[in-house]
């Protein structure tokens, strides 16, 4: 490892945060000391003719013209060029990478060396769509920023505190011991961020808080946080389990998969596509995976199939939240986050109205007003707290990368 660890923190020190997906790279440059985002952007539709990259510096959005198709490395090279043009490279002290699957190996932010890379690669078995893409980002940044420490922040890390009773499946134990077949959970950085924000609202340490958080975006998960720690979450060994999502089915009777193989001749590829890409809101509505489109179709065009899909979606979320109350003896409140959780007052209302037994009820005006990046408590008077909190996974990655650097430099 030839990277340099900076011993002390300056206000203008910045962490470059990289979230590399199979066809996209999201990035931001964040100053941990001030919380400022100096630059952010997204390269999407990589490796296709529609590949494009947008970079926002302060308030100015810039679309960089690159001949498409281009790949992750080209996108990151364009980012480096911009950082150099803006004289920002000297302030970068590390690159923090979102890595989806850390298995049972990583419960903390981790400095990436050859062993860590190898483990992330091995864990691709558990996250075939995500970990290889994360590694592409790591390699590209090692090329672009050879002297900087590269740090991995794992989506699964926050859930490593789950007890055995929550992470084991009702399957033969040797499948867990020999093959790692257990529940891991995802969206950890998001649940951690919003739980911290809720603790601030409650004006007490996170370690004293009992919360349920619903991250509802294209991927969705519900997590129960007891004394500040994740004790159960709805996503499992892979990001398919639990509540229904944009295109993922969520929980289905495992027997259905056998039925599809034996009676309808499905191959493993077809099953994979079915439960990951063709199900959820898209599969049920037969219209779209996008919550906004479905709400519009339901409310403006009376589209019954869109309404059905949204009703199943909300009922399953409410059931998941209610079932997680079994982990707690005390509950400070419920948190909504993610693209749907932060913006859809309809979904929030539909979910919460099915949770009156837990003393949840919304104030309609506050629910309606708390959208588009606004955060706040939307509970009715005398009901249990219910917050909308805009998530910020990038900030967690920057903060935790910086904390690790400071710790290593001591
Ligand atoms: P994410 O994966 O967190 O970016 O969330 C994407 C989801 O948020 C998509 O289903 C969007 O339709 C949904 N979303 C974003 N804005 C709104 C909105 N104003 N109303 C309803 N859903 C929204």
UniProtKB/TrEMBL annotation:
Gene Ontology CC, one term: cytosol
Cofactor: Mg(2+); Mn(2+)
Subcellular location: Cytoplasm
Coiled-coil features, chain-numbered ranges: none
Active site positions: 155
Catalytic reactions of this protein: acetate + ATP = acetyl phosphate + ADP
The keyword Nucleotidyltransferase is annotated on this UniProt entry: no
Leader peptide range in chain numbering: none
Top-tier EC class: transferase
PROSITE patterns attached to this UniProt entry: ACETATE_KINASE_1 (PS01075), ACETATE_KINASE_2 (PS01076)
Site feature (Transition state stabilizer) residues: 187, 248
Record: residues binding Mg(2+): 19, 393
Gene Ontology biological process terms in this record: acetate metabolic process; acetyl-CoA biosynthetic process
UniProt remark on cofactor binding: Mg(2+). Can also accept Mn(2+).
Entry's family note: Belongs to the acetokinase family.
Protein name: Acetate kinase
Native source species: Litorilituus sediminis
Upper lineage: Bacteria, Pseudomonadati, Pseudomonadota, Gammaproteobacteria, Alteromonadales
């Amino acid at each position: 490892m030839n990277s340099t660890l900076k011993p002390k923190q300056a206000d203008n020190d910045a962490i470059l945060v990289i979230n590399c997906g199979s066809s996209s790279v999201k990035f931001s440059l964040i100053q941990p000391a001030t919380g400022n985002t100096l630059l952010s952007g997204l390269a999407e539709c990589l490796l296709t003719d529609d590949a494009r990259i947008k970079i926002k510096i302060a308030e100015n959005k810039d679309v960089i013209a690159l001949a498409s198709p281009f790949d992750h490395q080209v996108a990151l090279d364009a980012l480096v060029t911009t950082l150099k043009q803006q004289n920002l490279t000297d302030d970068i002290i590390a690159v923090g990478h979102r890595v989806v699957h850390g298995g049972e190996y990583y419960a903390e932010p981790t400095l990436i060396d050859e062993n860590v890379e190898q483990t992330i690669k091995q864990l691709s078995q558990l996250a075939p769509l995500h970990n290889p893409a994360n590694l592409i980002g790591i390699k590209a940044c090692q090329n672009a920023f050879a002297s900087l420490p590269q740090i991995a922040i794992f989506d699964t890390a926050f859930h490593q505190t789950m007890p055995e009773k929550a992470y084991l499946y009702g399957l033969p134990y040797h499948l867990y011991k020999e093959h790692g077949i257990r529940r891991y959970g995802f969206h950890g950085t998001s649940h951690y961020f919003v739980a911290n924000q809720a603790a601030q609202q409650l004006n007490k340490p996170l370690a004293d808080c009992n919360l349920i958080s619903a991250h509802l975006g294209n991927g969705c998960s519900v997590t129960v946080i007891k004394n500040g720690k994740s004790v159960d979450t709805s996503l499992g060994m892979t990001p398919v389990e639990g509540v229904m999502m944009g295109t993922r089915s969520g929980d289905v009777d495992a027997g259905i998969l056998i039925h599809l193989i034996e009676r309808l001749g499905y191959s493993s590829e077809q099953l994979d596509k079915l439960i990951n890409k063709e199900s959820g809101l898209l599969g049920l509505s037969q219209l779209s995976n996008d919550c906004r489109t479905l709400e519009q179709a339901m409310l403006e065009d009376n589209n019954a199939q869109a309404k059905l899909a949204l009703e199943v979606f909300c009922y399953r979320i409410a059931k998941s939240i209610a079932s997680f109350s079994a982990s707690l003896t005390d509950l400070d409140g419920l948190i909504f986050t993610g693209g749907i959780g932060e913006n859809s007052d309809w979904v929030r209302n539909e979910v919460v109205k099915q949770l009156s037994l837990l003393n949840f009820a919304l104030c309609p005006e506050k629910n309606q007003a708390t959208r588009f990046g606004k955060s706040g408590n939307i509970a009715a008077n005398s009901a249990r707290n219910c917050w909308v909190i805009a998530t910020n996974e990038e900030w967690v990655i920057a903060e935790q990368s910086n904390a690790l650097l400071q710790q290593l430099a001591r």
